[in-house]
Amino acid sequence: MRVDAGLSRLLGLSRTVVAALAEDGRVAVDGQTAGKSDRLTAGAWLEVELPEPEQQAPISGPAEVVAGLGILYSDDDIVVVDKPVGVAAHPSPGWTGPTVVGGLAALGYRVSTSGAAERQGIVHRLDVGTTGVMVVATSEHAYTELKRAFKERTVDKRYHAVCQGHPDPSSGTIDAPIDRHPKHDYRFAVVAGGKPSVTHYDTIEAFRAASLLDVHLETGRTHQIRVHLSALRHPCVGDLAYGADPTLAKRLHLERQWLHARSLGFDHPGDGRRVEFVSPYPADLERALELLRD
């Protein structure tokens, strides 16, 4: 076979890339530089000098004051924040808005340097449109311990959600695998062969058109509550991406899903004591509840 065809098959590279390597003198057969159209023969000694992999520039965001970012608790190991709507946990490709990481930096907090550069200190995330309590590691020890706790599911994550209609039964468990939506990149769905995902829920209060739920996450998949409630045909009120009624959302003056990370309980990474932090409802969710009760 020709050098470009043979190396393409051997290394899984395109023929264009292999041809460029040969033209740069990076391919040798039996010690002699080989061109892309030279022939490979059985028993020959083949040497290829591969280029260095491209280094991607780290994703970073500015340290900027984030309006509404509340500090519920802080010490040498952790800082617990009350995340407002419209704020991402950390910088990511395509996101130009505020982040928890940038907001903490602006407030003078130094977080753990473990993890990817853009996710330093971040041990779990909330969607941009989801408000509530988040913990960020400020020490390396805390980062390691908290990551382990989330992986071993010893963290008690409770959310409050207002879903459309009335789930039947009023309390139950949704055990359905989740993966990326087969047709929409930005969405997730219940998919056969997806990652195991378990959501427990209890009805706190029932209204004519909706229900306030207490949701306990056993796993922590992206958009898990939104996906599972949508699969039950009871999407979060205001969650238009997952099938919510836009008329009801407009009546309640909601511009995002009614979903709030209500509380977070875990063993403190510093001394092992059990701690729990609770976040009050933000103004837009509180107003929607009042309208549902009227």
Give the CA-CA distance, first to last residue. Answer: 79 Å
Annotation field: number of helices: 7
Task: Indicate the radius of gyration in whole angstroms.
Answer: 25 Å
Largest sheet: 9 strands, mixed
Shape label: elongated
Please identify the structural class as seen in this structure: alpha+beta
H/E topology pattern? HHEEEEEHEHEEEEEEHHEEH
Tell me what you see in this structure.
The longest helix is centred in the middle third of the chain and has 12 residues, at 140-151. The chain starts with a helix and ends with a helix. It contains 7 helices and 14 strands. It has 294 residues and is of the alpha+beta class. It is elongated. The mean pLDDT is 92. The strands form 3 sheets. Strands 4, 5, 6, 7, 8, 11, 12, 13 and 14 form a 9-stranded mixed sheet that branches. Strands 2-1-3 form a 3-stranded antiparallel sheet. It has a two-stranded antiparallel sheet with strand order 9-10.
Topology:
Layout: H1 3-11, H2 15-23, E1 27-29, E2 32-33, E3 46-48, E4 70-74, E5 78-83, H3 100-106, E6 131-137, H4 140-151, E7 156-164, E8 171-175, E9 178-180, E10 188-190, E11 198-206, E12 210-217, H5 224-231, H6 246-251, E13 259-267, E14 274-278, H7 283-293
